[in-house]
Design a protein that fits this description.
Length: 463
């Protein structure tokens, strides 16, 4: 494992990594000496000035202080590219802080100023640029517009990720704008209206990469390029049919109609703008972003769920991964903490590092996989190369993984990409108990809480 920490990580990611590296150092020393390392200051690996942050208590105190609006250490997220310490003091004093003070009253959570920053960016940059392309198209402008949109696609998608999971991102006084802006911006950023909500919230999080998940990786050999291309191709060309049919099979005809209607309406809009308004502008503004985003979504989802435990594939700890890295967390609002997101989809994105430190024992017991210096796109790319030594070098070992050689870690990771047969899927994914069966058995409450809290999930995984 490479124990270097990228200097461009967010402060919470740096705290998490220092904490994990300290765990590895202690465990290694304990195995060598047979004694527990009780004094964290005896570890000189990362420097004495941050020793207090390497302990769980010190890490949690700092992380919680950063998130608490009542604490003097609280820092709202205003920009993704620069942190407050990176901004010139004069700009910070007379521009960033006054803006953050006003914006914190517009967003739902005081830490989420960055969401308003991005909504304003897309509204006053992408939207006028798109309108002008339809009015006066030029190839240079079209290329620049498409490149900028592609650069922003990840941040916008994860902004919408927070929007759809929490029914908005702005304060109640701004509810109308909060409701309307996605319908204006989604087509410009490669999304179709509401499809992300129906597929991700009403389908993916219900199925959790299980056998009925249309984006499940279980039936694929997850380091095989042909399996990957089949996976991507099916989503690109058939999701317009597969998702409504999924809801039909579930007996939810309302969602089937809504999901199909929103998707088909978006296709009709793309068709009209391309063939009846301006084909060249539509290609730059709508078609290319649409194709690139959908490709990116499936590459990312493959990376998130490619490493699935062969023994307990239904465990949230063992069917997804955690990344402590630059792109997924700095630019995409802690999307790297994917295991934590599946444990509780409504957890605030700034609380993900806090949850991780608080739940390290559950992650260790669940034999979760944690990586650094790699994002989901590179994860997928390295799997296609079958470069497990590279992945092993990015793995941050926890629990029983500590002390394993790079080769042993690589061999362990290789076992997590094997496709499941239908017989294995049937055996390992138990049929859920229906409401009628619970009532017949005299059980009044659901056996698993609908919010899928961490404690319930942990107990389920330990059965």
């Amino acid at each position: 494992m490479a124990s270097t920490i990228h200097p461009y990580l967010t402060e919470p990611d740096i705290i998490v990594l220092r904490n994990l590296f300290n765990d590895v150092s202690r465990a290694d020393d304990q195995k060598k000496t047979g004694e527990s390392k009780t004094d964290p200051k005896s570890d000189k690996t990362l420097g004495e000035d941050i020793d207090h942050l390497k302990t769980d208590r010190g890490a949690l105190d700092r992380l919680k202080a950063l998130n608490d609006p009542e604490n003097s250490q609280f820092q709202p997220t205003v920009l993704v590219t620069w942190d407050e310490k990176d901004i010139h003091p004069i700009i910070n004093e007379y521009l960033i802080r006054p803006y953050a003070k006003v914006a914190s009253r517009i967003v739902r959570h005081p830490a989420d100023v960055v969401f308003l920053t991005h909504v304003l960016l897309y509204t006053f940059v992408n939207l006028p640029s798109a309108i002008y392309l339809f009015y006066n198209f030029s190839y240079l402008h079209g290329i620049i517009h498409t490149a900028f949109t592609f650069w922003c696609a990840g941040s916008f998608t994860l902004l919408m990720h927070n929007h759809i999971h929490n029914n908005g991102i702005l304060a109640r006084e701004w509810a109308i704008f909060d409701f309307c802006f996605p319908y204006v911006l989604e087509p410009l950023m490669g999304h179709t209206w509401d499809s992300y909500y129906y597929h991700h919230v009403k389908h993916h999080h219900v199925e959790g990469n299980g056998p009925n998940d249309l984006s499940s990786t279980l039936r694929y050999q997850r380091d095989d390029i042909w399996h990957f291309l089949h996976y991507v191709g099916r989503f690109l060309f058939l999701i317009w049919l597969d998702l409504p049919l999924y809801f039909v099979r579930k007996g939810n005809y309302k969602l089937a109609l809504q999901s199909g209607g929103s998707e088909y309406a978006a296709y009709a809009f793309l068709y009209y703008m391309t063939f009846h308004v301006n084909a060249r502008a539509s290609t730059s503004v709508l078609i290319i972003p649409f194709m690139l985003l959908r490709l990116g979504l499936m590459i990312g989802n493959w990376g998130q769920h490619a490493l699935v435990d062969e023994l307990e594939p239904d465990s949230d700890y063992r069917s997804s991964i955690t990344l402590v890295d630059v792109p997924s967390n700095r630019f995409c609002f802690n999307d790297g903490y994917h295991t934590g997101h599946h444990l509780n989809p409504r957890r605030h994105w700034r609380d993900q590092p806090v949850h991780f430190i608080e739940s390290k024992a559950a992650y260790r017991d669940g034999r979760a996989l944690v990586f650094h210096n790699i994002d989901y796109l590179m994860m997928t790319f390295k799997l296609m190369q079958k470069d497990y030594m590279y992945l092993a070098n990015c793995l941050v070992p926890m629990g029983d993984q500590i002390g394993m050689s790079q080769r042993e870690l690589a061999d362990m990771l290789r076992t997590k990409t094997r496709r499941f047969t239908e017989e294995e899927i049937e055996a390992k994914f138990k049929k859920p108990v229906s409401a009628a069966e619970r009532k017949k058995a005299g059980v009044q409450k659901p056996l698993v809480d609908e919010k899928k809290t961490d404690v319930v999930t942990e107990c389920r995984n330990r059965k």
